[in-house]
TrEMBL record:
This is Alpha-amylase. Its cofactor is Ca(2+). Residues 34-114, 152-234 form the Carbohydrate binding module family domain. GO terms for biological process: carbohydrate metabolic process. It comes from Globisporangium ultimum (strain ATCC 200006 / CBS 805.95 / DAOM BR144).
Length: 896
């Protein structure tokens, strides 16, 4: 909530709390003496502001700048500031004037009597001792070693490199030399032998500061891993290259003269070093005809997991409105991003909606207005009650007077839980906590809506799970391995907007309402461990492939939102002047919201499991408070539009600590508890790592008792913890994987085959002869038997059981959804010169009155409709205490 986000100025973060009791974070230190109300605030901020409401409304953000304390009881050297006001009550929050807020963990600070009050910040760390009068030292040296103190002759830099003729490109504090800089001379010092690659550069006194980078004069640069080299005093300094390997032995002398330096042209885009005190990463132009920036954003050590705050300077990459490359879906994301933050009261009959916006410019120089369903005001907060049964439409307009610029942000509609149609709940469903869920894999929303009306409700299914509803990667012009839009693109999100391959937000809303009206709950597949794959974004890319160079272009998405990754990039971003960085403006996420780029190479290493990039997917830093809050708010949006719960994809890679924190926030935002029929199940695939993940609760990365303890610590009640389940990857062959039920079986979700197992090379689960993958085994009778067994077995009390109803694949590997968006012959864009070779023609998913197992001899691209098989239907009905039915009673026509 008050996470440190350099370069990202939050225009509004004030949250008006409607829940619970006020936290006593403020202390009365002196009773009313008739002089009014006095607030002393201790903080690490140098110029804090107080944003307050004395009863007649809130001040304009960021509020009133506080004054340094002059009271010896509250010494300014220990971070104390003061604010005085007449009156006897006050509600207030603090901020640093630059978008970072302290709002008492979302409860605001409140005092109800005049007097002197003190508050110590829980967001910024105050100084622990008053500063001394020692002069402020010069900026720290970076990447260089002082080997000889100042002797009055100036600055001397020795550089060891494998380059034959290195150059130094430098600044002494104002401007930089012209690229490539000054050619260094071979060292003549016996301590730094020229034969071992040492070169020298001298800068005469009184020079005492230098910021610099090196290059070979032909486009290869060494810039200290993007932060430049810096020295802070005169003297003799050494630097050993991180880019070119120096010689390890002195070569034998030869009669030849010093080689002539290369005459190749300098790079067309030299680094942009910054002689400022704020370290802005320097971009090294890639060399060669097919090189790229790969590796520059990889983790630089085995323990690094995050990106430096300075990477936030690479944010704001989206083209401005109407510029080259801009499209309607980009809105004004170049300068303005944001989202709606929703918090319910405990009865979930009202909610506070706060628009949280981020500005590229200094927020104090901009003015914003907020429009809620046509009514415009300066307040970013809207109070919704259960009388609101329509969408809440939100529009933000911000302008900067000094530049005359104006930006508009249109948010997606907000819906609320009280707007959802009621769902009929037979007694056997245990209030929505028991039943069968059909996973309609690859079904568009319109077809699911029809299926709910025609069959699912009559059959007695508890609910239907759909593919991830969030906006994800799509491309009609750039196939992947010959496939137009392979199925796994829906597991590469680009935002949390509810526009997907399966349909629009309006179609999703209509489908959910129809399904609920027919007694069928809807569950989402939620992808929150990561965003899109590295190299899948709106930019151009290249990568060497043997002796050739592979190029690919921009991908899009279901709603056309922009998104950026750093992988396989080779050109500077036009608007930041830096190499591309991770950014998903429609969320919004920026560079420091992700873990640094690390290959996931071990399934038994907790650090790699949690911070590694799973199959190259951009891994979110879910330890960061803002990321946790944003994910929890996505979950709030899912419940608001009518979902009854969700599966969390790749939860194993989010980790137990972050999972518990996110689910705790969801409980808070939903009014302090989950809805009575809510369920969540997390994907925890395990095998040989079961001790780490399940059996040893003290492993430090445990999803059984260890996670439950973290849930409880996050304020989740025992009743609600029972609703948080784990997908049983050990079913049916290895359960219970620890040899006994560490958690009761009711906490696990079971199913026969799942969508990941359909991949030809999948090793995600070993079912042996205890289960069957329909589209691989191609044996209907055996598969039907295992699906029936899913509901008839009574050896454990599993409450939620899932049936996969998918589609068949083609022998050549074509596996896109048969929804028409993977068809090579209709809708493929060949203008980029690409070839689509693995086509999946369109087939309508909904077929009124259909039988089950419509596999048509397992021809490719046929929806299987497993859930319509009457043997499975009646086994499922018996499981929830419903009587048997005939095919005609549930709408199946003809002979099956």
């Amino acid at each position: 909530m008050a996470s440190k986000r350099f370069g990202l100025l939050q225009a509004v973060v004030v949250f008006v709390c409607l829940l619970g009791a006020v936290v006593d974070a403020q202390t009365l230190v002196k009773a009313n003496d008739g002089t009014g109300l006095h607030v002393y605030f201790r903080t690490g901020w140098t110029a804090p502001y107080i944003h307050y409401n004395a009863g007649s409304g809130w001040t304009t953000s960021p509020g009133v700048k506080m004054t340094a304390s002059s009271d010896s009881s509250f010494p300014v050297g220990l971070g104390w500031f003061k604010f005085d006001i007449s009156g006897s009550s006050l509600e207030f929050v603090f901020n640093n004037g630059n978008g970072v807020w302290d709002n008492n963990n979302n409860a605001n600070y409140k005092v109800s009597a005049a007097g002197t009050w003190s508050v110590t910040s829980t967001v910024s760390t105050p100084p622990t001792a008053a500063p001394t009068t020692t002069p402020v030292p010069a900026p720290a040296a970076v990447g260089a070693t002082l080997v000889k103190p100042n002797d009055g002759t100036g600055v001397h830099v020795y550089f060891q490199s494998g380059w034959a003729a290195p150059y130094i490109h430098y600044s002494t504090g104002s401007t930089w030399t012209t690229s490539p800089g000054v050619k260094m001379t071979a060292s003549t010092d016996s301590t730094y032998l020229a034969g071992l690659g040492w070169f020298k550069f001298d800068l005469a006194a009184p020079a005492a500061y230098l910021e610099f980078v090196f290059n070979n004069g032909n486009g290869a640069w060494d810039n200290n891993n993007n932060v430049n080299y810096k020295l802070n005093a005169a003297g003799t300094w050494t630097v050993i290259s991180k880019v070119s390997v120096p010689p390890t032995t002195t070569p034998a002398p030869t009669p030849s003269t010093t080689p002539t330096p290369t005459t190749a042209s300098p790079p067309t885009s030299a680094p942009t070093p910054r002689p400022t005190t704020t370290p802005i990463p320097t971009t090294v132009p890639p060399t060669g005809p097919c090189t790229n920036y790969n590796g520059l954003d990889s983790c630089q050590s085995g323990t690094q997991t995050t990106y430096p705050d300075s990477d936030e300077t690479r944010r704001w990459q989206t083209p401005p409105r109407n510029a080259t490359g801009w499209s309607e879906g980009f809105q004004d994301y170049r300068s303005l991003t944001g989202y709606a933050h929703v918090v319910y009261n405990s009865a979930r009959t009202s909610a506070t909606v706060t628009v949280r916006t981020n500005l590229r410019v200094d927020s104090s120089t901009a003015t914003c207005s907020y429009t809620f369903n046509g009514a415009t005001s300066s307040s970013a907060t809207f109070a919704a009650t259960s009388s609101l049964m329509a969408d809440l439409n939100i529009k933000v307009v911000c302008s900067q007077g000094s530049s005359g610029e104006k930006w508009t942000l249109e948010l997606d509609p907000v819906n609320f839980v009280w707007q959802a149609n009621p769902v009929a709940t037979p007694a056997g469903f245990e209030g929505g906590q028991k039943g069968a869920i059909v996973d309609l894999f690859g079904w568009p929303y319109a077809d699911i809506e029809a299926e709910c009306k025609d069959f699912l409700g009559k059959a007695g299914y508890l609910g239907v799970k759909i593919n991830p509803p969030q906006e994800s990667v799509l491309s009609d012009a750039w196939p992947q391995s010959g496939e137009r839009n392979p199925w796994y693109f829906v597991y590469q999100p680009v935002s949390y907007r509810l526009y997907s391959r399966m349909g629009t937000r309006a179609q999703l809303r209509s489908m959910i309402q129809t399904c609920r009206a027919n007694g069928v709950r809807v569950y989402a597949d939620a992808v929150v461990n990561h965003m899109s794959g590295g190299g899948n974004d709106v930019s151009l890319h290249r990568n060497p492939s043997g002796s050739s160079c592979t190029y690919w272009g921009a991908k899009s998405s279901a709603k056309g939102s922009p998104y950026y990754t750093h992988n396989y990039q080779y050109a500077l971003n036009t608007y930041t002047g830096a190499r591309p960085a991770l950014e998903f403006p429609a969320v919004p996420y920026g560079p420091t919201d992700f873990h640094c780029d690390r290959t996931l190479g071990s399934w038994n290493d907790a650090l790699q499991l949690e911070t590694g990039w799973l199959v190259g997917l951009t891994d979110l830093n879910t330890a960061k408070p803002y990321v946790r809050e944003r994910i929890a708010q996505y979950f709030v949006d899912l419940l608001g539009i009518g979902f009854s719960g969700f599966r969390i994809d790749a939860m194993k890679h989010i980790g137990p600590t972050d999972t518990a924190a996110i689910m705790g926030l969801l409980s808070t935002y939903m009014g302090g508890s989950y809805p009575s029929d809510f369920i969540m199940w997390g994907e925890i695939i395990m095998g040989g790592e079961a001790q780490l993940l399940a059996c040893n609760e003290n492993s430090g990365y445990n999803f059984y008792k260890g996670l439950d303890a973290k849930y409880a610590a996050a304020g989740i009640s025992a009743t609600d913890i029972a609703k948080l389940k784990i997908w049983s990857s050990d079913y049916p062959k290895e359960m219970p994987i620890c040899g006994s039920w560490i958690l009761p079986a009711s906490r696990f979700v079971i199913q026969n085959d799942d969508h990941d197992q359909q991949n030809p090379d999948s090793t995600s689960r070993d079912m042996g002869d205890k289960g069957s993958i329909l589209i691989k085994a191609k044996n209907v009778n055996i598969h039907r038997g295992f699906e029936v067994q899913l509901f008839t077995r009574t050896d454990a009390d599993w409450k939620i059981r899932v049936v996969l109803s998918s589609y068949t694949w083609f022998p050549n590997g074509a596996a896109g959804f048969p929804d028409g968006l993977s068809d090579c012959n209709n809708g493929f864009d060949a203008s980029s010169g690409q070839t689509c070779t693995r086509s999946v023609p369109y087939e309508k998913a909904f077929r009124a009155g259909s039988c089950g197992y419509t596999v048509e001899d397992f021809a490719g691209g046929k929806y299987t409709r497993v859930h319509r098989d009457m043997s499975i239907v009646n086994a499922m009905r018996g499981f929830v205490g419903l009587g048997s039915v005939t095919a005609s009673q549930v709408g199946i026509t003809g002979s099956c």
